[in-house]
Amino acid sequence: MPSTSECKYCGSAISSSDQNCPNCGAPNEGYVAETKRQIFLPVTIDELKEYCAERGMPLLKMRFFIGEDYRHPRAFGIYKDGKDYIVYKNKSDGSRAVRYKGPDEKYAVSELFAKLLEECHNRGIYPDGKFPENSAPGTRKRSGGRKTALPAIICIIVTMLLSAVMAVYSIHQHRNDGYYSTGDGTVYYHYGNDWYYTYDINDSGYWYEADEFPAADYDNYSLGESWDSDWGVSDFKQSSTYESITESSSSSSSDYDSWDSSDTDWDSDW
User: Which domain holds residue 61?
Assistant: First the structure.
């Protein structure tokens, strides 16, 4: 069912099914297409994946690994092991705290889902629509007087300028993308500001996040932008890691742009 909130530009009532405000024409930030966001309370691992995908959550950046037994530090996750579902947290020192292990998938998913929402809420993001009382849509007092479409025009202009700036930034950010290796059998891939590594072509095509390249002058260890099967590792651009990164960056909202995983308390059990 469509929900009703308040247009942030003119204060008029606006439905989540309206792509633009019917009064001033401003873009509706709470717009939900009919084919989107069908899942509001996931009860299976697949539904939890879909819930996050519908809302454009960059799970790799958020350090949530759904359906995966991720073994590196700083991670929340859930996966199935035989008849049991495992919900876990990998602390900053690499040790693991198991939140739940048992056959109840619904309960396991609810545990990780609650933590996912908690991490979002701590950063002022509300994918579940449950805003704090003092910031919920509709709690602000409407301003009187003549309404105008000027805010919508300003919004469009700002959006166009931001898009141009982001395009230039993206080109600059990815100028050093490619494969690198120091010759020890490990191959690294530089994507944007991040490093990923792998060393086994049979490692399910997964590339792990690395803190940095092992040599400061990484330009001297470049293998180029194109993958070569002779290296004995999987192609980064065909990996599940790359798919996760690109899907997140293409669909995630600006709410998650400033997400910093270091803000999480990684030393606690949960």
Answer: 4-122
